[in-house]
Amino acid sequence: MTLIDHYAVFGSPIKHSKSPRIHKIFAEQTNQSIEYNAQEVCPEDFSSAVTTFFEHDGKGLNCTVPLKELAWTYADSKTGRAQTAKAVNTLIKQNDGSILGDNTDGIGLVTDLINNHNLNLAESRILILGAGGASRGIIGPLLEQSRHPIIIANRTIEKVVNLASEFLHENTIKGCGFDALKGQQFDLVINATSTSLTGQLPPLPNDLLAKNAVCYDLAYSNETTAFVRWGQQNKALKSLDGLGMLIEQAAEAFFIWRGIRPKTAPVIELLNRERNLA
Ligand code: NDP
């Protein structure tokens, strides 16, 4: 009898998650015997649902909106990058039964930008829009890459100033409101607000993009997101959405769980082809 290891993604809403499909393709590609399901879990039920999952032989979990901070609290121990992010998207059951929390969002984004889109992050002046959970996950890995100070703009200024101050020892990060962006230009603008989910945009000046700038929306959809459209209208060299990041963060989680790294390029190509047909 072949033993199947169990994995899942918890979140709310979760119905449209692409993670089960991505992990199924990774498992086929690498000959791993796993099952990966999506489960609707609201914050009130999170702790008991995770405990039940791991008590019933679950090996690893992904946690998505709005559960990443709760997963951080739940984990018995955290990796350095999860500790910095104060948000966990991957839980791993250790041999001693304890639960380790990691955050693969940041490395997923950086891998997509560098490996799949050939961006030179070291030389890019980077602007991050938004100061929520996703922003927390990507700041550390982006700071490791960039030689320029990173600017984060957010609607609630107090929140972004506090977030930037957590990374202040890096001395390369500044938090501000959207008004403060007037007169500044960037090579890479990353939308880590949730505005695209409702078809909205943060209030952005029209001259924000430097020549050959790249726009990247962490949100992804079968339709062009509002921020990707804004990038196209403002003559960005590339205006990308977060499907590549989703697949790269999943590959990192798969590697942590299974010790084998799946190839992401064919999965990105397949999912892009499917949504172009949708
Ligand atoms: P959070 O709810 O934690 O944060 C939302 C952020 O958006 C806050 O900074 C909030 O500002 C801002 N915001 C919301 N509405 C508006 C508005 N009308 N105008 C301006 N700013 C606004 O969400 P997450 O950080 O978890 O997620 C952000 C996005 O990233 C989502 O679209 C999510 O799907 C995507 N994501 C994609 C991933 C991928 O793999 N591709 C991985 C993780 C996230 P304020 O502080 O003022 O409320």
In short:
Helix content is 38%, strand content 22%.
3D architecture notes:
The protein is of the alpha/beta class. The chain folds into two domains: 5-103, 3-Layer(aba) Sandwich (Rossmann fold); 106-243, NAD(P)-binding Rossmann-like Domain (Rossmann fold), CATH 3.40.50. Helix content is 38%, strand content 22%. The chain contains ten helices and twelve strands. The protein has helices at 19-30, 46-55, 68-74, 80-85, 105-116, 133-145, 157-166, 226-233, 243-258, 265-277, and strands spanning 5-11, 34-40, 58-63, 77-78, 90-93, 99-102, 126-129, 150-153, 173-176, 186-191, 209-217, 238-240. Helix 1 links the parallel strand 1 (5-11) and strand 2. It is globular, with a radius of gyration of 19 Å. It starts with a strand and ends with a helix. The structure holds NADPH dihydro-nicotinamide-adenine-dinucleotide phosphate. NADPH dihydro-nicotinamide-adenine-dinucleotide phosphate binds next to helix 5, helix 6 and helix 9.
What layout of secondary structure does this protein have?
Elements: E1 5-11, H1 19-30, E2 34-40, H2 46-55, E3 58-63, H3 68-74, E4 77-78, H4 80-85, E5 90-93, E6 99-102, H5 105-116, E7 126-129, H6 133-145, E8 150-153, H7 157-166, E9 173-176, E10 186-191, E11 209-217, H8 226-233, E12 238-240, H9 243-258, H10 265-277
Parallel strand pairs: 1-2, 1-3, 4-6, 7-8, 7-10, 8-9, 10-11, 11-12
Antiparallel strand pairs: 3-5, 5-6
Helix pairs in contact: 1-9, 5-6, 5-9
The structure holds NADPH dihydro-nicotinamide-adenine-dinucleotide phosphate.
NADPH dihydro-nicotinamide-adenine-dinucleotide phosphate is lined by residues 65, 105, 108, 130-135, 154-156, 159, 192-197, 200, 202, 218-220, 242, 245-246, 249.
